[in-house]
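Researcher: I'd like a candidate sequence for this fold, 314 residues long. If you have to choose between options at a position, lean toward the conservative one.
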């Protein structure tokens, strides 16, 4: 197939309302459903006391159960409604997770093996979610554009994760006492336990809210083919899809890069606690000032490196 023919085929695909709905589903599900509390890692390390060796061992067992889950779906649920399967498994994942989390938060049971049990139990329903996502890609693809469909849908699903983390950093950065301060977990006050518990409740709420996106997903392969054959094609579907990819990717990269550097990680935009102390000390105020300071620091480092290399070569 020539490049012009492939480009035309790709453009026709992007104009499809059927593909547009699936793209929205992939993005919204991961973006909303993965807005999770920043306290997760802290609870695991400080309160559950999970060690790296045990964590890796349970991950291996989880991978084995994930494979078993794939087999069960292939054997018994190939023709089961995708929407119902995702609804049941998503609700089940969160309900299974709740006892492990809240019993650990309120110091009823703080044991690494108990806490890691949830990691193993959720793998079978997670496998069902994975299979449905794969089936959708297979059914949406046509001869010649399989790579494009796979790349677009998996990119949208994966892009929702960083976007969700960026939103989560900003949202949970507002909680007081701070969820990111290890001293609060060491102090382990009753007030702070309630704050952590509420952050998890909010995370579960986002996970359940993401289920409304299931209406965008076809129920099975027959409906997928019907949508492709009967639903209209419009230019604005392609424009919106490409714009969504560009905006989400840019926003995610900016926020995640800001979180990597000490000079900008304090910004609320990046999920920090704010840079009031730096402002009081006479440093640039606000997001624009912090970005300018970071840019100047990077330029100075580049200039120093260039000077060093020039001196070395001389």
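Model: Candidate sequence:
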């Amino acid at each position: 197939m020539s490049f012009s023919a492939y480009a035309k085929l790709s453009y026709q695909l992007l104009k499809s309302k059927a593909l547009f709905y699936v793209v929205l589903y992939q993005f919204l599900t991961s973006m909303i459903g993965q807005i999770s509390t920043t306290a997760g890692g802290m609870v695991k390390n400080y309160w559950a006391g999970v060690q790296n060796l045990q964590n890796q061992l349970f991950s291996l067992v989880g991978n084995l159960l994930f494979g078993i889950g794939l087999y069960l779906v292939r054997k018994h649920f190939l023709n089961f409604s995708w929407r119902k399967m995702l609804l049941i498994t998503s609700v089940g994942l969160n309900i299974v997770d709740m006892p492990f989390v809240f019993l650990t938060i309120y110091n009823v049971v703080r044991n690494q093996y108990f806490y890691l049990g949830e990691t193993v139990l959720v793998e079978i329903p997670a496998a069902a979610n994975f299979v449905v996502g794969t089936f959708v890609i297979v059914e949406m693809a046509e001869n010649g554009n399989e790579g494009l469909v796979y790349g677009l849908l998996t990119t949208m699903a994966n892009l929702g994760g960083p976007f969700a983390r960026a939103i989560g950093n900003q949202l949970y950065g507002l909680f007081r006492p701070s969820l990111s301060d290890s001293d609060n977990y060491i102090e382990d006050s009753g007030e702070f336990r309630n704050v952590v518990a509420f952050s998890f409740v909010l995370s579960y709420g986002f996970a359940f809210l993401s289920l409304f996106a299931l209406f965008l997903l076809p129920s099975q392969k027959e409906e997928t083919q019907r949508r492709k054959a009967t639903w209209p094609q419009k230019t604005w579907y392609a424009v919106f899809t490409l714009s969504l990819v560009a905006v989400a990717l840019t926003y995610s990269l900016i926020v995640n890069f800001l979180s990597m550097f000490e000079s900008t990680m304090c910004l609320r935009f990046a999920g920090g606690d704010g840079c009031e102390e730096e402002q009081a000390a006479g440093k640039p105020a606000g997001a624009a000032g912090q970005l300018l300071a970071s840019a100047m620091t990077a330029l100075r480092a580049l200039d120093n490196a260039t000077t060093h290399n020039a001196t070395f070569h001389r």
